[in-house]
Design brief:
ARM-like; two-stranded antiparallel ribbon; 2% strand; mainly alpha; ARM-type_fold; elongated; 27 helices; 2 strands; repeat
Amino acid sequence: MPDTLAYLQEVNASFLENLKDGDVETSRMLLWNVLEEIAPRVASAASDRHACEFIEVLVDHMSAQQLRFFLHKMEGYFSHLWTNRYSSHVLQRLLSKVGAIVGNEVKGEADDDDDPDRAADVPPMSSLIVTMCSEVQAEWLTLINDVSASHVMRAVFCALAGRAPVLEKRGKKGKHKALQFQSAQTTNAESVPREFEDTLSEMLELVLGSSDGRLVELMSDAHAGPVLSMAVRVAPTAVQSKVIFKLLKWNDPERSSQRFYDFAADSVASHFLEAVCHSCDEDVWAAIFERCLQGRLLEFSEHPISNFVVQNFIQRTPTSDLNSRLTLNVPGARIVETLLKFPTDVSEPIWASDNQDAKLALFEKLQGQFGSLVLDRNGSFTVLKCFDVVSVAEKRKKKVKELFSDFMDDQAPKKKRKHDKKDGKKSKKKAKADE
């Protein structure tokens, strides 16, 4: 391995220099030479703490044919590569590029005409991905909560759904990048073959076939939980609904309501509910709200973890009718109580949303309470936001009048106390004079 490391270090420096000079052809040929050189020991190189850094740089600049060649040489080693701390980062980097390549394959568009001779015996990228998943099929249930493999599985789910994960560096000292997912609403899915959807469904069905107790454990697991959240975000609607209803025990109304309650208070499982909120269709959203949240919003809002679930349901309300029901769900007086406790956690999503009706509805609920809110360090945030939202002069006038009235009422006892003190002093002086 020392020889391979020294070779990669030298080649990496030359490659970056060529890129800087704009010598594309030399860089392309250099990449092919590296791939052929490390092909016999690609698994060990990708698993090395230092070598993997150089490989990740090269992967970033590989053509579609070169990426296929590279992945093809990994076959037979995927179980190790998924679970190794360093090679798992290499795989994530590669998988982040799969979507566009497979999309072109589905459309029948040829990938870059790089080096047909070297890539002649290499299968299409879609076949390589399915082969990789099949190779580790017997280990899916253990890989899902492995510290390294779970990240690869999330990247695989994105690739199978035609979504592109985003790689972001972790921490100031982080040398590798961690997979982050951009919301389905902000990214367009690439076309994928039928085999991809079948593979994704097969993987999820195997996991969902576990006992209910095991599924609850997975939902709270720091590694498996995010995998299931990712599945909900990217899976096709039919598969997504199956995952949601299975994990929430939807066939039992009482248990599903309790399951939602338990998940909402869990630091890991609550992210699954947030993913459900932003990814499910309107009917599923409404069904979950009616069964699990309606009438209990305040209870959820007062919890340090589940209040984030409430935030997400407030931010993503599919229809104006559902928004009205959500807004009217909490009595006005208790809204004030909650806002004083969680000013930015609960009220800010409403003020930050584009739903003007929700903002005005909250304003109406708060009328009569502005005096209490403005005197509170946290509640004053909401009062200021109300001024920004309410543009109607008459309503602003009402609000100012209410605040001024509350101020005068607050000052009245103080004036009375001062007056009583003066009367007291006069009485004492008179008593002394009489003596």
